[in-house]
Design brief:
CATH superfamily: NAD(P)-binding Rossmann-like Domain
CATH topology: Rossmann fold
Strand order of the largest sheet: 3-2-1-4-5-6-11
Distance between the termini: 41 Å
Shape: globular
Bound molecules: nicotinamide-adenine-dinucleotide, uridine-5'-diphosphate
Largest sheet: 7 strands, parallel
Radius of gyration: 19 Å
Structural class: alpha/beta
Helix content: 25-40%
Number of domains: 1
C-alpha cells in the first residue's frame, strides 16, 4: 500500500483521482484550500479509513510523509484563474516550490498537472511535446499559462539539480461529472444551457477547435505515467486526438439532450486559442495509452450528471 498526496484533491480531476487511488488500494491524503474544490466532491470518501482530508493552501509550506505526490492544486477554468491572477501565479510557482521541496526532503515521486495552455495559441498543429509554444506573457491567460510554464521549469530544475523524481503531464481539455456548473467552461456551459432550453453561448463564430478528453481516460494516463521508470520525466501530452469545433460540440449537445436551445454568437475572448489538438504518439509509445472514450459516450455520462444536479436543486445561485 502506497501513501499518496493529491493536492487539489477536492476539485474536478482531483476528486476522481482520489477515488481511483483508493480503489487501487492506496492511502490517500487529499489537500485542498477549497477555492474551487467542494466537500460534495469527496464527501463519499470521508468514511474510508484510508482517506484523509487536509485543508491547506500550497502557497504555504507543509510537512507530510508520503511516497507519491500528484500536484493538481490550481484553478483550471479561465473565470476562476483570472479572478485573482496574482494568486494563480503564486499557486503555480510558490506551490510548486513547496511541493518540490517536500518531495526532495522525503524522497517522494511527484507528478505535475501541467496543461496544453503551455502551447498558448499554437503555431504548429497538432501539438507535440517538442513544440515550445506561443504564449502571450502579459495577457488575461498569462497568469495561468506562464505560471504553469514556470512550474514545469521548476520541476525540471529540481530534477536536474537535486535528483527529485518528477513526472510532468500536459493535460488537454478534460470533461466529465463533477465539473463545476459555474466555471464557464464550454462543456458544462453548453450542457446546462441545453438542459434548460436556453441560448447556447458560442464565443466567436464557433469554428475554433478543442479536443475533449473524458476524465477516466486522463486518470488511466496519469497513473500509467506515474509508474514509469525514474529516468522518464516527460513532459507527456494526455488528451483525446479527435478534434471538434465549438459549433459541432453545441450541435451534438443539443441533439443528445433533445433541446430547443438556439445558438447565440458572442465575441471571442482575447487570446482564446484558435486550434488545439494533442499529438499523443509519445504517450502511445511510452505507456501504451490513448484516450479511448468517444465524445458521445463521455457526453452521455456528463449530461446525466448535470441532469441529476439540476433535478436535485443543488445548483449554485450564480448559474
Ligand atoms: P478544479 O478547479 O476543479 O480543481 C483545482 C483544485 O485545486 C480545487 O479543488 C481548488 O480548491 C484547489 N486549489 C486551488 N488553489 C489552491 C491552493 N493554493 N492550495 C490548495 N488547493 C488549491 O480544476 P481541475 O479541472 O480539477 O484541474 C486540476 C488540475 O489539472 C489543475 O492544476 C489544472 O491546471 C490541471 N488541468 C486541468 C484541465 C481541465 O481540462 N480540467 C486541463 C489542463 C490542466
Ligand atoms: N466557449 C464558448 N462558449 C462558452 C464557453 C466557452 O464558445 O459558453 C469557448 C471558449 O471561448 C473556448 C472554448 O469554448 O474557445 C473552450 O473553452 P473552455 O473555457 O472550456 O476551455 P479553454 O479555453 O481553457 O480551452
Amino acid at each position: 500500500m502506497k501513501s499518496i498526496l493529491v493536492t487539489g484533491g477536492a476539485g474536478f480531476i482531483g476528486s476522481h483521482l482520489c477515488e481511483r487511488l483508493l480503489r487501487d488500494g492506496n492511502e490517500v491524503i487529499c489537500l485542498d484550500n477549497f477555492f474551487t474544490g467542494r466537500k460534495d466532491n469527496i464527501i463519499h470518501l470521508l468514511d474510508d479509513h484510508h482517506f484523509e482530508l487536509v485543508r491547506h493552501d500550497i502557497t504555504r509550506e507543509i510537512f507530510l510523509e508520503v511516497d507519491e505526490i500528484y500536484n493538481l492544486a490550481c484553478p483550471a477554468s479561465p473565470i476562476h484563474y483570472q479572478y485573482n491572477p496574482i494568486k494563480t501565479v503564486k499557486t503555480n510557482v510558490m506551490g510548486a516550490v513547496n511541493m518540490l521541496g517536500m518531495a526532495k526532503r522525503i524522497k517522494a515521486k511527484i507528478l505535475q498537472a501541467s496543461t496544453s495552455e503551455v502551447y498558448g495559441d499554437p503555431g504548429v498543429h497538432p501539438q507535440k511535446e517538442e513544440y515550445w509554444g506561443n504564449v502571450n506573457p502579459v495577457g488575461k491567460r498569462s497568469c495561468y499559462d506562464e505560471g504553469k510554464r514556470c512550474a514545469e521549469t521548476l520541476f525540471m530544475d529540481y530534477h536536474n539539480q537535486n535528483g527529485v523524481k518528477i513526472k510532468i503531464v500536459r493535460i488537454f481539455n478534460t470533461y466529465g461529472p463533477r465539473m463545476l456548473p459555474d466555471d464557464g467552461r464550454v462543456v458544462s456551459n453548453f450542457i446546462i444551457q441545453a438542459l434548460r432550453n436556453m441560448d447556447i453561448t458560442i464565443y466567436g463564430d464557433g469554428s475554433h477547435t478543442r479536443s475533449f478528453q473524458y476524465i477516466d481516460d486522463l486518470l488511466e494516463g496519469m497513473l500509467r505515467f506515474m509508474g514509469t521508470p525514474d529516468d522518464i520525466t516527460g513532459p507527456v501530452n494526455l488528451g483525446n486526438e479527435s478534434e471538434c469545433s465549438i459549433k459541432e460540440l453545441a450541435g451534438l449537445i443539443i441533439e443528445m439532450t433533445n433541446s430547443r436551445s438556439r445558438l447565440k454568437f458572442l465575441p471571442l475572448p482575447d487570446n482564446d486559442p484558435v486550434r488545439r489538438r494533442p499529438d499523443t504518439s509519445y504517450a502511445r509509445q511510452l505507456i501504451d495509452w490513448e484516450a479511448k472514450t468517444g465524445i458521445r459516450e463521455g457526453l452521455k455520462k456528463t449530461i446525466g450528471y448535470f441532469d441529476n444536479l439540476l433535478a436535485s436543486g443543488r445548483m449554485p445561485r450564480s448559474v
